[in-house]
Specification:
By secondary structure, the chain is of the alpha/beta class. Among the domains are: 35-142 and 245-310, VC0802-like; 325-504, 3-Layer(aba) Sandwich (Rossmann fold). Helix content is 38%, strand content 21%. The protein has helices spanning 14-19, 24-34, 49-60, 82-86, 110-123, 127-147, 154-161, 163-173, 207-228, 262-277, 325-334, 352-360, 373-393, 436-453, 468-477; strands at 37-43, 64-66, 72-78, 93-101, 185-188, 193-196, 246-254, 280-281, 288-295, 298-304, 342-345, 365-370, 403-407, 422-426, 460-465, 482-492, 495-504. Helix 5 packs parallel to helix 10, helix 6 (127-147) packs across helix 9 and helix 11 packs across helix 12 (352-360). This is THUM3 protein.
Length: 516
Amino acid sequence: AAAPPPARAQQRPAEAAGDAGLGPAAAQEGAELAELAAVIGATVPTGFEQTAAEEVREKLGSASRISKDRGKIYFEVPARSLPQVHRLRSVDNLFVVVQEFKDYQFKENKEDALKDLEDLVKKLPWTDPLKVWELNNSLKKKKTKRKKHNLQSPASRGKLSDGGEEGGEDQNNTNDQEDCAQNPVAVEPTGGQDTENPQGVTSRNGVEEEEDDEQSDVKAEVQASSESGSRAGEGQAGAGEAKVLRFRVTCNRAGDKHSFTSNEAARDFGGAVQEHFQWKADMTNFDVEVLLNIHSNEVVVGIALTEESLHRRNITHFGPTTLRSTLAYGMLRLCDPQPTDIIVDPMCGTGAIPIEGAAEWPCCYHIAGDNNPQAVKRAANNISSLLRKNESKDSSTALGVPLDVIQWDICRLPLRTGSVDVVVTDMPFGKRIGSKKKNWDLYPACLMEMGRICTPGTGRAVLLTQDKKCFAKALSRVGHIWRRAQTVWVNVGGLHAAVYLLRRTSEPAQDTRPFW
């Protein structure tokens, strides 16, 4: 007999339940759910795990554990804190942990190893994680309802869902929590079909187009469960009241000592999930995404809480090398912005860094610039989108954002010497934009000009580059004005890159620019 998912969908804290007109029993049940402890897993930009852990401690008061599997952290919060969890700036994707095995012993024989994974499904404590997943869905339903009045126009929706401008980098970026090779797979176990999913846990096929349909499906499940008390997969009479959940399994595997592939693990584990809950497998239009993360001997089973990566929160107009908002947040946090700081991104591209800065550090003033007119136009459009977003939240308090965008020459910035507190920028890697050869001239000139505009003694710079050899040489030439304080190794679209924190020396800069 199939075991049903032991959870009710419409569950809130007692006061919310009272507002909804539910009885004392339902209110009590909602209160118990709100106090339920949930272990949350989060994927974060590789290299910024500590930054994410610090943000969780500051905003949620929870201690985090950084996984051996780079690019992941785990922390425990009460279920009522889910809205605040979704507002974290440093996390890409969220999932609730069903169970974690720190030293799982895989059998050497492939069939035995896969059989153990199948048998594991029946032993896992699904009850509380499914309650957390259902509460998360009810929160998403409310959020979607609020957005109904501010739907985007078809034209802007097209821009959002068009992957052309976002380019290959963003697709690669979504999995940069893994340094070693991953094979993320989503498998429909009934047909035995192995379908590669290039973006792994972070992608959703056609999420923009199908969002409304999926939310309405979730709403139907919430209503069916709360009104009739029926559970998915029970097969009771009046089956029209209960909706069979659709699911898929996504497996991320790293390590060379496994006798099976990610495809095989997801297929067999997914088959066992289907048999256990009597859910329906669906690769694209699913309600539940079960995650099977395998890193050497560490195994984590989870249920996804995000439909698409949270790093997409700010950007609507993408360029060929759009930086993820979560990585931008990590870079900004590294320079420790203080109120009234003037923060400049002299090579802003689509504006990911200054837009993230203006949203999270509104007491600073942010200046974005680029020499490419198309990039400046995209940045301006993204700023306009942010303004519209702020207005839709509360038009009575919308005051704009402390951010300007300008077209300029990085080597001849129209800024007074010593007038800037912080420079944060994503420097050309010399791959999609520019070339490694040009970087040998560009990097020293950039560092000199950044040193000129930064305040001696207190100025900081946080610079991202993959061209580490060129950067090291350029830095050695300007050692009298910049000192390297910290290096964070990151993975950007499969490229091993570095984020450098530089501190401005007290040496005065020489302004060699001619007067005009």
